[in-house]
């Protein structure tokens, strides 16, 4: 089996002052192997986005966050890496955000932002080379007139176009891992589906691993090879997509699956108003254990 | 196009000018006291006073006086000062450049010190540089300009005398004769390098005293706007892509944060023209603000109206410049202007 590109072990995160803290992640462990598509699924507030943000090195700086455990990416620890982590892990990992339009700076043209992204991967790149690469990258995500898109501001493009620009930027530096935090949730369903398909195709072609953060099981089913179900800051079930959808074992996973709206099924099942406390321990399906190399 | 909105703004500014001229014209005349008597002094005879009143149309009805004023204005004549006994336009031409020079240097200090202070504070939010920066900004805002003037004079003119505390130039340097009235420019044009440095030397303390409150305000605004922008997804994205933190602060986050700040800075600059009075007084600066206060005290009608109009015009011009600058750095406004 391929080596893991991302290994998270016993990740704990608390918010608060030094004296009063609330733990929100209670020991998350997961891994993503090279060219694998993994999904992290859970409801709002389950901790899936903070996990991704920690892995990107985006939360560590805040004085009110306290993280422990390890997030290893190519041998670099994102927890101990501190302020410089984003730079040190370089462009080996990229991220796609929820709302593409607000993730692009409103006062710079796409061209400038694209150059900056390419420059973060290759500081010596010339403007002309960067523009050429950007055009090629935009053409690859089927943007009809890349030159014009480069000379536009984000607010002049549609949400779907911006999402494509984001994907092009994310893949421009050939990352080994792409993190996608609910990509396209802010867009309409059709555009969202197109985006995911595009993302799937491109990452498949290049062998890029993907960690998809989502609450949408329908999306996950089509996209991921393997799924982690996260609930209240804990991974409660972990298995291949087929295992999880055909024989969900954890009651929370079953509840999640039952919550997928079906055209034929008469309405949503009755869920308790407050999410129930599922005390069952982690369920790991066969063949989905920790990679041996990651334990050392 | 941008020109269309510019024309629109200039038109609006002209209407405001007409309104201000009527207001100040009326207000100056309803203030108690007889300007002719004040001008001629207590020893003048009643006949002399009456003659002066007649000469200046002071006995006519207000609308008639305003009409006379407009007629003169159309010839570029703002009347004659009762205090200096010279045309008001001559007085303004003499005093305005001194004030403008002071205010422009102040504005430059305000931007060069205030913005970096705000960026630093936001960048080190909640840590020592932030606490220090905020304290400095708060003290700068709350202390009146004339107090700063006196403090600076004491510190850098008395205890540690490295700056002159009065005037625009040393007596040993010949006063430059035109063309702009800005000593810095005129001395440079005249090729007098030593004079230029001396004029700059004289500007430091008064300009700093005048800049302090705007500087503090600029730092506070920049900080809070930067912090707002830091929460935006596009800054998170910049960090996720590993852009250098300092580059994010000075470029990626600063540009959007600067848009609301710039509007306030423009108003701060315009307000300086009025606030300059106390600083000009403290530093013996021969400027328009000081002139304006003196003519108000003497009820020098034509001079009051002329000074107020010039300061109002400067205010409006500043506003238009700021609007244009905002639309240049904010593509959303610029491009929307193109459609509307």
TrEMBL record, chain A:
This protein's record includes keyword ATP-binding: yes
Main location: membrane
Swiss-Prot/TrEMBL keywords: ATP-binding, Cell membrane, Membrane, Nucleotide-binding, Transport
Membrane topology recorded in Swiss-Prot or TrEMBL: Peripheral membrane protein
Alphabetical list of Gene3D superfamilies matching this protein: P-loop containing nucleotide triphosphate hydrolases (3.40.50.300)
Subcellular localization(s) per the UniProt record: Cell inner membrane
Domain of life: Bacteria
Domain ABC transporter: 8-257
Pfam families in the cross-refs: ABC_tran, oligo_HPY
CDD domains: ABC_NikE_OppD_transporters
Similarity annotation: Belongs to the ABC transporter superfamily.
Name assigned to this protein: ABC-type dipeptide/oligopeptide/nickel transport system ATPase component
Taxonomic source organism: Kaistia dalseonensis
TrEMBL record, chain B:
Keywords from the UniProt entry: Cell membrane, Membrane, Transmembrane, Transmembrane helix, Transport
Subcellular location: Cell membrane
CDD domains the record matches: TM_PBP2
Stretches assigned to the ABC transmembrane type-1 domain: 96-326
Membrane topology: Multi-pass membrane protein
PROSITE patterns membership: ABC_TM1
Membrane-spanning intervals of the chain: 12-31, 104-124, 136-160, 199-216, 257-278, 303-329
Coiled coil: none
Presence of the UniProt keyword Cell membrane in the record: yes
Family of the protein in this entry: Belongs to the binding-protein-dependent transport system permease family.
Protein name in UniProt: Peptide/nickel transport system permease protein
Record organism: Kaistia dalseonensis
């Amino acid at each position: 089996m391929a080596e893991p590109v991302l290994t998270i072990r016993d990740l704990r995160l608390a918010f608060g002052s030094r004296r009063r803290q609330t733990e929100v992640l209670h020991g998350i462990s997961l891994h993503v192997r090279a060219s694998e598509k993994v999904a992290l699924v859970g409801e709002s507030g389950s901790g899936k986005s903070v996990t991704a943000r920690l892995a990107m090195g985006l939360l560590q700086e805040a004085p009110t966050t306290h993280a422990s455990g390890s997030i290893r990416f190519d041998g670099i620890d994102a927890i101990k890496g501190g302020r410089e982590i984003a730079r040190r892990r370089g462009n080996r990992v990229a991220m796609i955000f929820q709302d593409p339009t607000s993730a692009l700076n409103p006062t710079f043209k796409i061209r400038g932002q694209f150059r900056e992204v390419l420059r973060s991967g290759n500081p010596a790149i010339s403007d002309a080379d960067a523009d050429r690469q950007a055009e090629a990258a935009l053409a690859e995500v089927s943007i009809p007139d890349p030159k014009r898109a480069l000379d536009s501001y984000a607010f002049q493009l549609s949400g779907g176009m911006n999402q494509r620009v984001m994907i092009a930027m994310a893949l421009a530096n050939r990352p080994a891992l792409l993190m996608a935090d609910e990509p396209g949730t802010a867009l309409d369903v059709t555009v969202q589906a197109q985006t995911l398909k595009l993302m799937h195709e491109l990452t498949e072609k290049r062998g890029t691993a993907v960690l998809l953060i989502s609450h949408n099981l329908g999306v996950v089913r089509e996209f991921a090879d393997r799924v982690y179900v996260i609930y209240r800051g804990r991974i409660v079930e972990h298995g291949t997509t087929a295992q999880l959808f055909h024989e969900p074992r954890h009651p929370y996973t079953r509840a999640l699956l039952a919550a997928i709206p079906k055209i034929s099924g008469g309405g949503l099942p009755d869920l308790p108003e407050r999410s129930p406390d599922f005390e069952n321990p982690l369920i790991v399906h066969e063949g989905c254990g920790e990679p041996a190399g990651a334990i050392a | 196009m941008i020109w269309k909105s510019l024309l629109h703004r200039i038109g609006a500014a002209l209407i405001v000018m007409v309104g201000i001229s009527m207001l100040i014209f009326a207000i100056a005349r309803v203030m108690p006291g007889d300007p002719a008597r004040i001008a001629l002094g207590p020893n003048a005879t009643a006949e002399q006073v009456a003659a002066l009143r007649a000469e200046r149309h002071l006995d006519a009805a207000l609308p008639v006086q305003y009409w006379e004023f407009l007629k003169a204005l159309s010839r570029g004549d703002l009347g004659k000062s009762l205090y200096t006994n010279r045309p008001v336009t001559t007085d303004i031409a003499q005093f305005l450049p001194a004030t403008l020079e002071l205010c422009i240097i102040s504005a430059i200090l305000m931007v060069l010190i205030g913005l970096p202070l705000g960026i630093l504070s936001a960048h080190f939010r909640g840590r020592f540089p932030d606490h220090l920066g905020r304290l400095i900004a708060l003290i700068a805002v709350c202390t009146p300009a004339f107090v700063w003037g006196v403090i600076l004079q004491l510190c850098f003119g008395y205890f540690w005398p490295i700056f002159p505390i009065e005037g625009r130039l040393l007596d040993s340097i010949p006063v430059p004769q035109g063309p702009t009235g800005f000593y810095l420019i005129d001395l440079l044009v005249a090729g007098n390098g030593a004079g230029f440095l001396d004029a700059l030397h004289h500007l430091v303390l008064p300009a700093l005293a005048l800049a302090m409150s705007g500087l503090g305000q600029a730092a506070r605004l920049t900080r809070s706007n930067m912090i707002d922008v830091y929460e935006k997804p596009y800054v998170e994205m910049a960090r996720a892509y590993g852009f250098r933190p300092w580059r994010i602060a000075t470029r990626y986050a600063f540009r959007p944060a600067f848009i609301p700040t710039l509007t306030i800075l423009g108003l701060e600059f315009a307000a300086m023209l009025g606030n300059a009075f106390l600083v000009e007084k403290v530093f013996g600066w021969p400027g328009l603000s000081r002139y304006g206060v003196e003519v108000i005290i003497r009820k020098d009608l034509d001079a009051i109206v002329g000074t107020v109009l010039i300061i109002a015009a400067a205010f409006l011009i500043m506003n238009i410049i700021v609007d244009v600058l905002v639309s240049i750095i904010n593509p959303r406004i610029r491009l929307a202007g193109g459609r509307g």
